[in-house]
Write a structure and sequence with these properties.
7 strands; NAD(P)-bd_dom_sf; Enoyl-[acyl-carrier-protein] reductase [NADH]; 264 residues; alpha/beta; Enoyl-ACP_Rdtase_NADH; SDR_fam; 7 helices; Rossmann fold; binds nicotinamide-adenine-dinucleotide; fatty acid biosynthesis
Length: 264
């Protein structure tokens, strides 16, 4: 596995702390020999991001707020200057007002609907457009989604609607960029306890439910997601594009409560 990403350079956006899915992906890619650039959002995350970047020997660590076009331009310009070229890109970013990640979807405010779509959906398209310019030798892009895009999940609300749009974006981007041998895929991860997830109402119940009812009878880890990202970002996934790949211990195939699952 060590040589799989040797000589490959990629950008991973969305590092908040060592629980972040971005961190699980970064470790898997670094273990496979990739050279990484990482971004974090604003000063409040710098203190956590710096030691993590140092742990992987990452020198390309940049601040980037995806709602700010200048900030995006600056991050990609920095990479263009240092590397000139990019082989892979990972978008592990999402946000919605946690006040609306509980209660009823129908009560979503216009303001939060727009900002959720901006941060969690449009940012992937705008980053892929910038990454494409640097992927002069083909490339692979991955974003993170959740089963709440396909089925109604408790409290996921506007985020479920945003993830459905994100998954549709993956298919359109795959068609646009495929001619240049750039692949675009999504990983639909099962629930993992992260900073973003802690904003979702009853998240502990959701975790327990998935653990008891998934075919593998467990929750997935950052490492599970990292290994699948490695597959999609490396040559192992060379024929795969436009796909939403479930890394959820099989939960998405289940139709009803497992017969051996206790009541929770
Ligand atoms: P996390 O809190 O560690 O990461 C979310 C990241 O989004 C943070 O680094 C945050 O700074 C960043 N972000 C938010 N707004 C931003 C902005 N305006 N500009 C730049 N960055 C911004 O949580 P996570 O669970 O690792 O989330 C990563 C992705 O995985 C998200 O898209 C999330 O929806 C998705 N996901 C998470 C789970 C889960 O259960 N944790 C399951 C499926 C999908």
């Amino acid at each position: 596995m060590t040589q799989l990403m040797q000589g490959k350079r990629g950008l991973i956006m969305g590092l908040a702390n060592d629980k972040s899915i971005a961190w699980g992906i970064a470790r898997a890619l670094a273990d496979a020999g990739a050279e990484l650039a990482l971004t974090y959002q604003g000063d409040q995350f710098r203190k956590r991001a710096e030691p993590l970047a140092a742990q992987l020997g990452v020198t390309e660590l940049h601040e980037c707020d995806v709602t700010d076009e200048d900030s995006l331009d600056a991050a990609f310009a920095a990479l263009e200057k240092s590397w000139g070229k990019l082989d892979f890109y990972v978008h592990a970013i999402g946000f919605s007002d946690k006040g609306e990640l509980r209660g009823r979807y129908v009560d979503t405010s216009a303001e939060n609907f727009r900002s959720t779509m901006d941060v969690s959906v449009y940012s992937f398209t705008s980053c892929v457009r910038r990454a494409e310019k640097l992927m002069t030798d083909g490339g692979s892009c991955v974003t993170l989604t959740y089963y709440g895009a396909e089925r109604v999940m408790p409290h996921y609300n506007v985020m479920g609607v945003a993830k459905a749009a994100l998954e549709a974006s993956v298919r359109y981007l795959a068609e646009d960029l495929g001619k240049n041998n750039i692949r675009v895929n999504a990983i639909s991860a099962g629930p993992i306890k992260t900073l973003a997830a802690s904003g979702i109402g009853d998240f502990r119940y959701i975790l327990k439910w998935n653990e008891l009812n998934s075919p593998l009878r467990r929750n997935v880890t950052q490492e599970d997601v990292g290994k699948s990202a490695l597959y999609l970002l490396s040559d192992l996934g060379s024929g795969v594009t436009g796909e939403t790949h479930h890394v959820d211990a099989g939960y998405h195939v289940v139709g009803m409560k497992a017969v051996d699952a206790p009541d929770i």
